[in-house]
Amino acid sequence: MVSESDQFNLLYSLSFTLFLFSHFILCYTFLHYFTKNKLVMTKVTVVGSGNWGSVAAKLIASNTLLLTNFNDEVKMWVFEETLPGGEKLTEVINQTNENVKYLPGIKLGKNVIADPNLENAVKDADMLVFVSPHQFMEGICKLLVGKIKAGAEGLSLIKGMEVKKEGPCMISTLISNQLGINCSVLMGANIANEIAMEKFSEATVGYSQHKEVADKWVQLFTTPYFIVTAVNDVEGVELCGTLKNIVAIAAGFVDGLEMGNNTKAAIMRLGLKEMMAFSKLLFPSVKDSTFFESCGVADLITTCMGGRNRKVAEAYARNGGKRSFEELEEELLKGQKLQVPK
Fold first, then answer.
1. Does domain 40-232 have CATH number 3.40.50.720?
2. Is 204 within 8 Å of 230 (Cβ atoms)?
3. What is the pTM of this model?
4. DSSP secondary structure letter of residue 208
5. Which pLDDT does position 162 carry in this prediction?
6. Rounded to whole angstroms, how far apart are CA atoms 18 and 7?
7. Which residues are annotated as part of the binding site for NAD(+)?
8. Which of 150, 185, 188, 307 could bond 203 through an S-S bridge, CB–CB 3.0 to 4.6 Å?
9. Catalytic residue among 58, 101, 216, 244
């Protein structure tokens, strides 16, 4: 038998424990509200809303809700399109919390706000994530000149480069030069649909200065299923993301001509050597170790096995070169673009 005094002590202990727990929850809620609403929070905008852009917005939005130094809301600039039913893509994204055209079946997060107005989307943003097709970036940057918040930081997820008469121009350099902001890059073995389904993946942030900014990008993107690391080699990371797309075309030709896995493995090995040599020719500062990060050999393997360039190149070879890359791109990629230097 439990005595009345023991029962009283037990009830008292339970009541006191519940009292402390309820006050802890109250204090946590108050502090979270205070830090999210009273302090100056970092605002993030994603410039682009295709397959990878939508996945990037999903990753970021899941973290801004948890990180007290970020504003909850994530803006995503959408190039406005009219869907077959007559609805505007932006309106559907905001109503359904889903990019029904480029990432159907995946919820982005209720704190992702689609905006068709580029200038309005980037206004007041402290961190800008660029993830539009590289063919359009020069035009986008021209529209944004003078519209970016002073001191903003940029991050390019764009795998490509501009090829001009005066020589190749990296997308991060284009962004930095035209907008006057520091621009890091994020590259890796990142098939967007797999990350959207929260299958494990890795990525690499490349930076040239301000390690603390790179760490902030890592914090913004990292989740239990998406692990990000940073390396001080922005050119090396970005060139990995660019040049592997050329190797992937060769891998697609191998598949289309049914030359076998041994040939494909040789193409990938030789391609990696050429990537390293070409990168060092353009930028002697590029580090060998960068090619063994996710942005290097891992991304090369993924792209040569399942990337869009490989897919279109295979179809080109199977058709004996009788159908153009432009035609196959439109048919097979459903609005996405090949990743090749312009």
1. yes
2. yes
3. 0.84
4. S
5. 83
6. 17
7. 48-53, 79, 136, 192, 308, 337, 339
8. 188
9. 244
